[in-house]
Amino acid sequence: xxxxxxxxxxxxxxxxxxxxxxxxxxxxxDRLDDEMLALFERRLALAHRVGRAxxxxxxxxxxxxxxxxxxxxxxxxxxARPEHHAAVAGVWREVIGAGLARQxxxxxRLWAGAGAVRTADAARRRxxxxxxxxxxxxxxxxxxxxxxxxxxxxxxxxxxxxxxVDLPRRWPDLWVFDALADPRRPDQPCALALGxxxxxxxxxxxxxxxxxxxxxxxxxxxxxxxxxxxxxxxxLDEGGPPLDRAAGLVGTTP
Length: 254
Known about the structure:
Layout: H1 17-53, H2 66-79, H3 85-102, E1 107-111, H4 116-127, E2 132-135, H5 139-147, E3 152-156, H6 167-170, E4 175-181, E5 189-195, E6 206-212, E7 222-228, E8 231-236, E9 249-253
Helix pairs in contact: 1-3, 2-3
């Protein structure tokens, strides 16, 4: 009769010292993965409760809080080692995006322009894999989707399609809440994210400016993004006058 094998204890004495070390490391990683999964699911449950509890102060605003998202990331990056910043930001963008998707808030209508791959990749990094991303046939289609408060719009900054010129006048309820960039050129945004976001919930940071004529050297420093027939799309340094669509200040970026 075959005798039952005794219950295996950890670590297995039959393993070599090198194998024991590798197995111990893998065992510890598996244990941490289990803990991280439990914490992640707990966070998603809390995000769902937050979505049911929060609301826009007034008007048909999306229940998005770019200021809160920026504060969460800033706090975590301040605690993380510098060499881990990119990984931490990427992981937490996915975590935040999953939470927003759990709240039913994250549908993105994307107009990618000429740089389709670059813009689509930037949108995916910003909103995470849980977001529902749909292509828009034109900038107007993406803006109309966001204006109906069905989700947010991401539009490429394309020199051949100056959709942003009409933003202050034609789309008065849409605000820019982020600028998306390629990691290889983080200081040069390739697209803007817009939605019916409560202006009071926008993150503090650079302001998005759309102006006609001169004045490029006046006031706060600016980073030019695009020009069209005398109109300039730019990012202004933080500070200065408050947001004012009549003055061409149409949003902020963290």
